[in-house]
Amino acid sequence: MAIELARFTVKDGAEQKLVTERPAMVQALRRRFSGCLAAYLTKEDDGSWLDIVLWRSREEAEQAAREVDSVPECAAWFGHIAASGGLRHVEVVDAWNEAHDSSR
């Protein structure tokens, strides 16, 4: 598995649209890229945002990053972003998930 980390700021007055349009954008992303396993939108204390997406593999994450602008709902959602703070992918080398915890 791989995690995609995308840091950004939002255009003035666009936060509500960013959040409201998020479910449709994620649904379109998942339809186009089956390797997308989960997505978490977070807001940091300084007002910036961090989008965290879990992918089945790093290769699928990198392919999606190259092609995501071809998904209309994603391209429209990106229009709410004022500035990108960068995109990076990290490999998951160990994981724990309460839903799959067999130690209980």
By DSSP, the count of extended strands is 4
Name of the CATH architecture: 2-Layer Sandwich
- What is the domain total for the residues? 1
Supply Rg.
Answer: 14 Å
Domain ABM: 1-63
GO molecular function, one term: monooxygenase activity
Protein name: Antibiotic biosynthesis monooxygenase
Keywords: Monooxygenase, Oxidoreductase
Model description:
This is Antibiotic biosynthesis monooxygenase. Keywords: Monooxygenase, Oxidoreductase. It is a single chain. Helices cover 33% and strands 34% of the residues. It is α+β, with helices and mostly antiparallel strands and 104 residues long. It has a 4-stranded antiparallel beta sheet. Helix 2 packs across helix 4 (72-78). The radius of gyration is 14 Å and the shape is globular. 10% of the residues are buried.
Descriptive tags:
104 residues, Alpha-Beta Plaits, single chain, globular, alpha+beta
Q: How do the helices and strands line up, and which of them pair or pack?
A:
Elements: E1 2-10, H1 15-20, H2 22-32, E2 36-43, E3 49-55, H3 58-67, H4 72-78, E4 81-91
Antiparallel strand pairs: 1-3, 1-4, 2-3
